[in-house]
Specification:
The structure holds two protein chains of two kinds. Chain A is an all-alpha fold. Chain A has 14 helices and four strands. A two-stranded antiparallel sheet of chain A has the order 1-4. In chain A, strands 2-3 form a two-stranded antiparallel sheet. In chain B, helix 4 crosses helix 5 and helix 4 runs parallel beside helix 6. Chain B is α/β, with parallel strands linked by helices. The termini of chain B are far apart. Chain B has ten helices and ten strands. Chain B has two domains: 164 residues, Rossmann fold, CATH 3.40.50; 64 residues. In chain B, strand 1 and strand 2 form a beta hairpin. Classes of the chains: A mainly alpha, B alpha/beta. At the A-B interface, helix 8 and helix 9 of A face helix 3 and helix 4 of B. Bound molecules: adenosine-5'-triphosphate (ATP) and magnesium ion. Magnesium ion binds next to helix 2 of chain B. The site of adenosine-5'-triphosphate has 12 residues of chain B, from strand 2 and helix 2.
Chain lengths: 318, 248
């Protein structure tokens, strides 16, 4: 991780900053934007799932709350989209606080059940409140980002590319700072030995509540961004497809690594798109993801990041 | 105002019980611990020693009935982390560790939630690890790579960093070599000299006898003897309990 973070990651950021100079195709840029968005979702999910060992299967709820917050704020209430996006982070964190209270005291499979039930509840709420949310149809033609007279839809999504990259950078800085703080270390302690952690004054309940809320912030922001970018809010945000794709990124990237899911998101979005482009393979991409997931879990349980670390350590010496 | 102030009761356990289904693991145990002493607890396998520690610290459970008073507060309904923060810190019989954290990190997180200021923490944890003779070059390694003795040292260091009033040790000598036991003996004595009260569960009798000022023996969850260690080990009930325990 250290070698990787010091040498390679700044280089990756510079490359990503330069991508639009070489890539003018708006569809490729769109893929990058989607990948950045998924990278935020997956790495934040990793905070609760990987770092804390909390089987939170309601993570996409925070995303969904973000999507609808931005949509309702920007379209119905006329809030500036620039404000609606961060607002999504706030409401997502609040929704996390709501679910955290019961979840913090549960164990194992019950955490899965309650968090999953919560996401279904929110989905039902969205579907039933169709006057506000558009129901099953969702909401369309949301206001887009603009800066003065400049509309972000122009220049082949150039503006959106940088907003998404900025969001991913902020989120990743936030997560890495978090996991390297004493609080972050204590999460690993709680995950690996609850009794010992409690015997050292760590409150499991408080750590879990904090983790859920913290992991919801940028997940909500990503939801808000996604809604404004696509100009659509649909119940699919809470669907099984989004969730399983994000989960596969966490698993393939390597749980408990933060960077792993970020890398996996970029790989998976482009890999699946590549397959979607081949005739007859449109549906095969889900099989590809599943096979990749099984292979990684069998061959490199630490995920892609562990693999990369091994490679860089051997090429950079020692 | 004269002798009472010196013999301050720090921990007062009143008739605690714990049953697992039909098995009465701890049976109506009462004891008081004085500030500054080393209090030994002995008993054959399965006699309820560890369970008694569990009841006191609330990890993972408190007593079914009875009361635990610590520094004048009734703590038997407190959550475990609050008991630890109040200054009642324990180690575990089975080697406990945070495998992915280093020794330094383990000590660090054991301090911050007990209210130790982060500014002086690095210095203090280094000094503590020095005192425990924990090898300097091994402090940044993952705990999972440490030796059994080092893990035990670390478990004690992580308990001591928050300057607890009472240190509770559950069989710290198990799995150690003769020289390591000798080092442990000296270590516990030096910890005690800094004013830390110690509750010590131990199977290594020599260690118990050399260290503890008072000794309590459990059998089938109940106290069968208590008092001066040299007297206690000579009592027939104690010898019988140990012989009976061995033959099972
Ligand atoms: N969680 C539990 N569930 C069921 N029974 C338990 C549990 N914990 C302990 N026991 C039982 O309670 C009794 C006391 O166990 P305990 O671990 O306190 O003994 P001990 O004196 O510490 O023994 P040892 O010297 O082997 O460590 C034993 O019979 C044990 O099997
Ligand atoms: Mg025991």
């Amino acid at each position: 991780m250290n070698r990787l973070s010091i040498f390679i990651l700044p280089a990756v950021l510079i490359v990503l900053l330069a991508v639009p100079l070489f890539v003018e195709d708006s569809y490729i840029r769109h893929l990058f934007i989607v990948a950045f968005m998924y990278a935020v979702l997956a790495s934040n999910w990793d905070l609760s799932l990987g770092y804390t060992g909390l089987f939170n299967f309601g993570h996409m709820t925070f995303f969904g709350v973000g999507v609808y917050t931005a949509a309702i704020a920007a379209k119905t209430l006329g809030v500036d989209p620039w404000l609606a996006i961060p607002l999504s982070g706030v409401t997502a964190a609040l929704s996390a606080l709501l679910i955290a209270a019961p979840v913090a005291r549960l164990k194992g499979i019950y955490v899965v059940l309650v968090t999953f039930a919560f996401s279904q509840l929110v989905l039902q709420l969205i579907l039933s409140q169709s006057q506000i949310t558009g129901g099953g149809e969702g909401m369309v033609r949301l206001p887009y980002l603009r800066l003065g007279d400049y509309s972000f839809i122009r220049d082949y999504k150039l503006g959106y590319y940088y907003v998404a990259l900025g969001m991913l950078t902020l989120s990743t800085l936030f997560l890495t700072a978090l996991v390297s703080s004493p609080f972050g270390k204590s999460l690993k302690a709680v995950r690996d030995n609850e009794d010992y952690a409690r015997a050292r004054g760590i409150s499991i309940t408080r750590q879990r509540i904090a983790v859920l809320v913290l992991s919801a912030i940028f997940t909500g922001v990503a939801g808000g961004f996604y809604a404004i970018y696509l100009r659509v809010a649909s119940p699919e945000a809470l669907g099984f497809g989004t969730m399983s794709l994000t989960l596969s990124m966490v698993l393939i990237g390597g749980v408990g690594t933060i960077w792993g899911p970020v890398i996996a998101a970029l790989i998976l979005i482009f890999a699946t798109e590549a397959f979607a482009g081949i005739r007859g393979m449109e549906e095969a991409r889900f099989i590809i993801i599943a096979v990749a997931m099984i292979l990684v879990l069998r061959l490199a349980p630490g995920g892609v990041l562990a693999l990369l670390n091994r490679l860089t350590n051997s090429t950079l010496g020692r | 105002m004269t002798i009472e102030t010196e013999l301050e009761q720090i921990l007062d356990i009143r008739g605690v019980n714990k049953a697992f289904g039909g098995l009465q693991a701890v049976r109506d145990v009462s004891l008081t611990v004085q500030r500054g002493e080393i209090f030994g607890i002995a008993g054959p396998n399965g006699s309820g020693k560890s369970t008694l520690f569990n009841l006191i610290t609330g990890i993972p459970y408190g007593p079914t009935s009875g009361e635990v008073h610590f520094l004048g507060n009734r703590i038997d309904r407190w959550p475990a982390h609050r008991i630890a923060r109040a200054g009642l810190c324990r180690t575990f019989q089975k080697d406990a560790e945070f495998p992915e954290l280093s020794a330094r990190e383990t000590v660090l997180i054991s301090a911050v939630y007990c209210g130790v200021e982060q500014r002086q923490l690095r210095e203090r944890s280094d000094k503590l690890l020095d005192d425990l003779k924990f090898a300097a070059e091994r402090r940044d390694m993952k705990t999972s790579e440490l030796s059994v003795y080092e893990k035990k040292q670390l478990m004690i260091a992580s308990a001591l960093i928050s300057k607890p009033h009472v240190l509770m040790l559950d069989e710290p000598a198990s799995g150690l070599t003769k020289p390591e036991i000798k080092a442990l003996d000296e270590l516990l004595l030096s910890i005690n000299r800094t004013g830390v009260t110690i509750l010590l569960i131990e199977h290594v009798l020599s260690l118990l006898l050399s260290l503890s000022q008072r000794l309590l023996v459990l059998n089938h969850g109940a106290i069968i003897a208590a008092g001066d260690p040299q007297d206690v080990v000579k009592q027939d009930v104690v010898i019988e309990a140990y012989l009976g325990g061995r033959s099972n």
